Amino acid sequence: MNCFPEPTYAVFVDGELPPDEARRIEAHLLACGECRALVEALRAESRLLADLLQEVEPEVPPELVAPPARPRWMDFAWTTAVILGVAASAQAAYSWFSEVETVPGIGWLNPFSLGLQVQLFFASLFYLLREGASMLASLTATISALLVAIAFIAGVVLLRRWRQTPRFLLVTFSLLLVLGLAQPAAGVEHRAQKKGDIVIGENEVIDDTLVLHAEHITVDGTVTGNLFVFGGDLSLKGTVKGDLFAFAGNVRLKGTVEGNVFVFGGNTEVSGRVGNSVHAFAGNFLLPQGAEVGGDAISFAGAATVDGEIKRDLLSFAGATTIAGGVGRHVRTHTEALRVKSSARIGGDLKAVVDKQEKVEISPEATIGGKKGITVKPGTAARYKSPPFYMQITLGLGIVFLLGLFLRWLFPFLFSGVLNTAGDVGKAAGIGFAACVVPPVAALVLGIILIGIGILADVVLISILIPILMVVVWLLALYLSKLFVALSLGQVVFRREPGKPAPFVLPLLAGLVVVYIAINIPIIGGMLRFIVWILGLGIATLAAWRHYRRRAAA
Amino acid sequence: MKSETNGMESGGELDALVRRARQGDAEALGELYRQLRPRVFGLCRHLLGSREAAEDAASEVFLKAQRAMKTYDSALPFPRWLLSIASHYCIDVLRRRRLEQRLFHPGEIESEEPAAQRLSPLAEVMQAERRDHVRAAVEALPERYRLPLVLRYYSELSYEQIAGTLGLNRNHVATLIFRAKQELRRSLQRQAVSLAREPVQ
After folding, report:
1. Which residue of A has its CA nearest to B24?
2. Which of these, A226, A241, A284, A433, is most buried using a 10 Å CB contact count?
3. Taking CB atoms and an 8 Å limit, are B174 and A554 in contact across chains?
4. pTM of the prediction?
5. ipTM above 0.85?
6. Which residue on chain A is closest to B3 by alpha carbon?
7. How confident is the model over A340-378, as pLDDT tens digits?
């Protein structure tokens, strides 16, 4: 009898041959020693394979052993209780604060006043985006930074220490939002005129918050609440007792605003009297002679010209800044060209950051009470020659490293980096790009929508906190994104030994050094920094996502 | 059989857990997770070839299983049901990884060249370090060989079941498993040769 081919024996060993064929093989095996040996060897091989495959190396991260299951109703009860508790306290706090009569002039310090809330939003944004030190002087910025920090820490503690899920936080936040918005929109009057003008006559008194929406808006009368204006242009000769919020092409304020002024407009001229601060985001910002601002003036403009009086600080980010009037305290400016004329009177310091010394023109007759400090932004070449530059880098590296250790203590899962293959890098880059771009846009859109809703309900604090937090977390994430790239780089060198957790401290430090050197290389450094942002955010987002899925599975 | 007891409690206890889990008992679900995760992870590890991917996949499989709990038919042992979810999931993942959707080309399988040289089966008695080599060689196998091999020797499915899972016919499965083993033998022999050439240090 002939021997069978080896593949047939392999199928036979796996017990997958039809019975009659199997019988024929068994008969042959009795007769043929060579085939018997082959079949034995094949059996052994199958056993070996089964054995080897069954022995899988165990999963590493011990933190992911499923936590003991808790009955669901308890989760539910807890969630409900906490939400109700928080909502009730918020409600109580709101009604208490909104009833409190504060000393005139500091009413805006009330955390439930619209002025502070909007100020909070913008001030904290710019505080974080620009060098914060100059704005730290401004009390509002300090408060806002503090509030944002408290909110952030509270969120982290809730998440980590009380082990609440993000969903829980989301529910709480939305509920608070709804509660906040559900406050009676008392005393809001709304007038809209799609085409044409709205005129509030000289003798007209609006005893409410007023919202106006038209192409041309003229306010000659008196508004006792806040005034919101959306339109082509606004001319105000009358009086607003509350705050003014203007979204308009041209804004001319000749009258009086007793609270704050927030302007988002093309040309903005404030020639009247403003009781508190002016915030102008404008193409041109002009404060002509005779104008009076009781608080600070903060302007982001193509050109800012101050001929009038500012009682407190002037903070100007502008293409050209001209000061010919009076500023009670400090002047801080980031500008391309600075002119301080002879008529200028500055009570405190004058601090300016400029591109070129030639663009600074300070009249010797100008009065400056405090110190004068002009900083010329160092050119790229000069930067590399100065020792402080390297000290700064080293300091920055140290801080990021410590933050990395802290972050790992708080969120170990973020560091289960996954850049093993080119595919991983691509995935991280894609997700990272989205993570770089989406949050600020989303925060902006959300901010605009929520301010819109908040205006109608006259409560903005709670709704405004969400976009603020989004931006804060996003900026923080950009800043910390180096960590994840550094760790991935470092772990290429310091490899994980089989069966042991991946090394952390040394690879992180080594990686950070590499990253810091890379992002400070002239010319390509900026690009590398961008790549680090994208990759770092991608790695962290992926890790967080994986962690979330595993938690969900557990 | 080893696979049925690997990291698991006795059958009766497991059945009870499954029954409770099907009624929505979170504690029972958690316990099932604890007991069966290593096994699911192992399968995903072999099929997907990387630890991270396997960790993700194991989580996804449990989420899927939790959702599909109502459709579980108790005629099938629960671990087997879970592993079949896992293998389907991993095959999906592998499909998504490539531009072309198909993992197998039946025409290719039939036309594959048989091994030129005769290779003897892997010996059962192997030193510990060689076992690592075998495992690495399994990991390095192309997907079309690794998948059927793992389903056969890890999940212990029949040729018929493997064919069903991979969308092939039974003969293809037999061919692929045989080729997979030959491929393993070949790569290990190469290693053995290169090891033999290295001077002993």
Report:
1. A72
2. A226
3. no
4. 0.46
5. no
6. A54
7. 998 999 998 888 888 788 888 888 888 888 888 888 876
